[in-house]
Amino acid sequence: YIIVIMKKVTKKSLAIVPPSKESGLYDTDPYMPKMHTVTICIGKRASGKSVAIVNLIEKMKFDYTIVVSPTISSNKELMDRLNVEHTFDDIDDLSAIDQIKQIVVDEAEDLVRYQNEMERYKKLMSDLKKGVIVQDNELLEFYGDDQFEPPTHRFNGRKPRIACFFDDCLGSMIYSKPRKLNALATYSRHLGQMPEGGSIGVSLFFAIQSFKCKVGGLTPTIKNQATNLILFKSKDLKELKDVADSVGGEVSEDIFMKVYETAIGEGKNHEFLFIDLHKKKEHASCFRQRFDTFIIPEELNKNNNIDNNNKDA
């Protein structure tokens, strides 16, 4: 037998230096997913998909929501819980994707406008305090109602959190001709780039009845961008296997099925399995029943030495 011993020689000067901040990342509450997100919610008709997504958008504290749906009026009571600022009910109009992109770009431009005006305002106040002579146009820019007024921004100078909810779009042109939607899902967190770095970004939420639908459904490109999955009760074993394959890096298919059965139970109260594919390191597991109960597979419990009895995990 020949035994080959591998040897490593490390050069510290060539180590990879990651950026200090992840692009498009916002702070979220401790047990909420990371933002921005691409969330896919799978469930049959009347399973509770819209309710789950609305609750997640609420809990993640988005400033406003863009809704792409032909049935938004029939869900008025539910949608009224969100601050819906823009709606697109013609799901065959591909220009809707361009308009969504422009909404985010406009937010970035408005924030840059505010930052520039605030810089000029602070300089003007400083110059006046020092007795520096200023031009009339500089005085007039911020003078009104017999006093100087600072510039305003509806989000008080911070980046807005924007959600975009696609509902009841199966078979639409937006899904059937997916080039623009694929692109949106791929760079959604990079939309609305800021001069100092970072971006405004937009989180995407898709409610679909079938994960495996290839015609008129979500494309593999969008599925591969998913950061979160919400899975309601399904009798389609092929679909469950497809979802299990998408989380294959976390657990085996057998363990996934046990996790799914634990989360769904009898499915009488619209239970669902929530899968966080990019979970925070402090979260006990990437699996949850609904949003409030972590499910820790035994193999992960052993690896991470997590106490299953810790209700705050």
Average pLDDT value? Answer: 88
Strand fraction band? 5-15%
Could you give a short account of the major beta sheet?
9 strands, mixed
Using only C-alpha atoms, the radius of gyration works out to 24 Å
Strand line-up in the sheet with most strands: 3-2-6-7-1-8-9-10-11
What is the helix fraction of residues, given as a range? 25-40%
Q: Calculate the terminal CA-CA distance, rounded to whole Å.
A: 49 Å
What is the overall shape? globular
Instruction: Provide the low-confidence segments as ranges.
Output: 305-313
Total strand count, please? 11
Q: Which class do the helix and strand fractions yield?
A: alpha/beta
What string, H for helix and E for strand, traces the elements in order? EHEHEHHEEEHHEHEHHEEEH
Number of helices: 10
Q: What's the SSE blueprint?
A:
Blueprint: E1 38-42, H1 49-59, E2 64-68, H2 76-79, E3 84-88, H3 95-130, H4 136-141, E4 143-144, E5 147-148, E6 162-167, H5 173-176, H6 179-187, E7 203-208, H7 220-225, E8 228-231, H8 237-246, H9 253-264, E9 273-276, E10 287-289, E11 293-295, H10 298-304
Parallel strand pairs: 1-7, 1-8, 2-3, 2-6, 6-7
Antiparallel strand pairs: 4-5, 8-9, 9-10, 10-11
Written overview of the protein:
The protein is an alpha/beta fold. Helices cover 34% and strands 14% of the residues. It has helices at 49-59, 76-79, 95-130, 136-141, 173-176, 179-187, 220-225, 237-246, 253-264, 298-304, and strands at 38-42, 64-68, 84-88, 143-144, 147-148, 162-167, 203-208, 228-231, 273-276, 287-289, 293-295. It has a nine-stranded mixed sheet with strand order 3-2-6-7-1-8-9-10-11, sandwiched between helices. The protein starts with 37 loop residues before the first strand and ends in a 9-residue tail after the last helix. Residues 305-313 have low confidence and may be disordered.
